[in-house]
Amino acid sequence: MKIREFKIFIKTIRLQRLWNAAKVFVSYYLSNIIKRPIHWGLPIAIAVEPTTACNLRCPQCPSGLRSFNRPSGNLKIQEFQKWLEPIKNKVWAVTFYFQGEPFIHPDVEEGISIAHKFGLYTMSSTNGHFLDKQRAERIIQSGLDRLIISLDGTTQEIYEIYRKEGKLDKVIAGIQNLVAMKRQLKSATPYVIIQFIVMKSNEHQISDLKKLADSLGVDELKLKTAQIYDFENGSDFIPESQVYSRYQKNETGQFQIKNELKNRCWKLWHAPVITWDGQVVPCCFDKDASHPLGSLKDDNFKAIWNGNEYMNFRKQIWSSRKAVAICKNCTEGTRVWI
Question: Which domains are assigned to the chain?
Fold first, then answer.
């Protein structure tokens, strides 16, 4: 976290949140020592899914492929407020993103504003196609603290290899709208990050991207490694440079993820994901909500977080993480941002 962003983050510090975070950290590291899961406290951060809908057709994304095996829809903001209210003094941050394009949701800024008024650090991620001047103003006025904008190419020809049906010029115009509106409103937020997912098709454009990011006046540029679904036999999306790849060849010639899948999971201690319809799932790798740990339509968050389903899943990970399908592509233990 850069100094400018840290100055935004420290405004969310509260004694209850510090104490809760301390309990979470201590219980996690104690679990590592005794080799069995114990858990104290509530999450430090949560991710909420505004919508499953997306305007693009990205080939490594279930939203883009229209391949969900779970219901699709939009988050109801009133329900979100009800879910967040009981844990607002313990949770530190809310990410308004899971699957789908958040700003397709017509009222996502209302949800962001609710979290902001609770003093929470708020984040989102977008493909950048919905940042006209009016939307840019709404985003800034919502109090959003951080916004990641995906820009995976410096020319339309390269950009559309992955961001299928996307328009690079529209994304660039959207970034310009947001940066200009921040200046007009004299707002330090949102902290704007351009995210460049490095793939074989675009890795040669990294130097051009740095120049483009500088010219657009964003706060930061981040290079991100690409997640590939069926990576074992290789993929056209895996970059040539090992520096930018999550995967490497093993002795059999197949690809494997670089990190060792140890029997532990920090996400299960501090950062659950909530789908648009209130399903609580372990992490962002459970894109199809194949491991539902409870529903906020049936129970409150504290009961789910401390319930049998959650604890049994933690025990399963502590026993054999490699046996859990969603964990086989997990990046915990390796660098995602370069």
Answer: 3-327 (3.20.20.70)
Question: Helices 108-117 & 133-142, crossing angle to 10 degrees?
Answer: 20
Tens-place pLDDT, residues 56-87 = 999 999 888 888 889 999 999 999 999 999 99
Distances (CA, A) of 74 to 246, 275, 338: 32, 9, 33
Q: Tally Cβ neighbours within 10 Å of residue 127.
A: 24
| Residue partners of 304: CB distance under 8 A and separation at least 6 | 280, 293, 294, 295, 296, 310
The Cα-based distances of 140 to 94, 108, 144 in angstroms read 16, 12, 6
Which residues have a Cβ under 8 Å from the Cβ of 82 and sit 6 or more positions away? none
Tokens read off for 100: 């789908």
Give the three-class secondary structure for 279: strand
Global pTM? 0.96
Q: Do you know the residue count of the chain?
A: 338
